Amino acid sequence: MAAFRTFLKSGHAPTLGAAFFYFAFSCCIWVMNGAMAPFISESYNLSPAQKGVMLSIPIFAGALMRFPLGVLAQYIGRKNATLVEMGMIMVALLFGYFFVSSYNSLLAMGVLLGIAGASFGVALSLGSGSFPPRYKGLAMGLVGAGNVGTAVSVLVAPALAQRYGWQAVYGIAAGAMLLPLGAMIVFGKEPPDVDKHSSLREHAACLFEKDGWAFSIIYAVTFGGFIGLATFLPSYYYDQFGVSKTQAGQLSMLAAFMGAAVRIFGGWISDHWGGVNTLTAVLATVAVTLVLCGLADNSLVATTLLLMLCFAALGAGNGALFQLVPLRWPLATAVAGSMIGEIGALGGGLIPNAMGLSKQYSGTYFWGFTGFAVCAALVLLMLRAMQIRWTHTWAEKGGRARPQPATAAPPERGSGKLSPRQP
Q: Do 114 and 64 form a contact (C-beta atoms < 8 A)?
């Protein structure tokens, strides 16, 4: 506890809290259509493939909007960028409340919900910006735990939709966005850690390297899997097991909460065990649990336990990946993380589509789960092949940080004595 207080005092804790609050609300809004999918599907009598498209659009849109928001943040400041984005989110939600009346307008609403998904890079940079380098990883992990907003969404949105109607939830959410907006205005402070604008080439530099693509592909499985499955699960529970719409949200919350909570642990264990070792265990666990989920489609209890384990692994994988990013790009961590986050998040949009197509054309979700498991296994093979070079160049065995060379301690002023380390 004393160490945590020292961490908080080393930076601007109110900004850290405001960034977490902002990111949590943004995640909550981003997956809102997924949380209310059973209600929406019933209203418009959607096929499995149509549901897959509806659920994937906010994920794709959010991933593509991350880069423009990051550029905007460099020119008007990160705090101001969050205020602009939250204002746009409120306008988007009001569009949903007043104007969504057909499947096509629902798809347009999905694009607008993507505005909320753009918050990742700015939230992490804002929250960690005032903390010294030795604490940035922990600060980013705490803000990143705002993924818990997905769990809140799948728990709260169905209950509100049951009582007031699913379209009214957009209006309620628009009013609720005043809370993080007010917190950011009152408590947020622009960090002093950036004094220049990064060019487009600097932002995209890591994608011209094999390691940049490797990290993005891994993130497409870990974070893409997290957000894609979290969006899809309410529909899966409702369609596959015949539970009520609110129960589908509650069951989905168990898995989503596990993924968000374990993210911090994933970063911590990677510091001690190594990011490569952690990701190896993560990808193997994801592949196995997904296949078992496909086979356990008649058991609600087994499916729920397997999904909780799968989400815990995905959350740990997100933390592990971002333990490796600053080791590989120590002078461009924020830029590399931004691009990896954007490209990797696109993978999440494929999952609802794959699940919907699997159900529509084979009558079962098994092939959707298996397809994702095969992807995780292939990425695991890629990781094990590439880590051979990584551990000979920029990381220690297992993906741990290389120890810094010891430096001589300066002599005390006026003591006339040399440091014990000096010859």
A: yes
CB 78 within 8 A of CB 126: yes
Asked whether 370 and 290 are in contact (CB, 8 A), the reply is yes
Give CA–CA dist 4/243, Å, rounded: 42
Phi, psi of 297 (to 5 degrees): -75, 0
CA distance 287 to 313: 10
Closest CA to 77 of 200, 203, 192: 192
347 close to 226: Cβ distance less than 8 angstroms: no
The pLDDT tens digits for 112-141 are: 999 999 998 899 889 988 888 677 767 877
Q: What is the dihedral of CA 250, 175, 73, 322, to 10 degrees?
A: -10
Quick one: how far is CA 25 from the chain centroid?
A: 13
Judge whether 191 and 69 are in contact, CB under 8 Å: no
**pTM reported for the whole predicted model:** 0.89
DSSP assigned state of 209 = S
Rounded to whole angstroms, how far apart are CA atoms 156 and 168?
Answer: 13
Q: Burial of 73 by CB count in 10 Å (0-12 exposed, 13-18 middle, 19+ buried)?
A: buried
Round to whole Å and give the CA distance between 102 and 57. 16
C-beta of residue 124 within 8 angstroms of C-beta of residue 211: no
CA dist., res. 293 & res. 48, Å (int): 19
pLDDT given for residue 200 in this prediction:
65
Kindly list the structural domains of the chain, giving each domain's residue range(s) and its CATH number in brackets, ordered by start.
13-190+203-396 (1.20.1250.20)
- Per-residue confidence (pLDDT) for residue 128, from 0 to 100: 83
User: Are 117 and 56 contacting, i.e. CB atoms less than 8 angstroms apart?
Assistant: no
- The helix/strand/coil state of 196 is coil
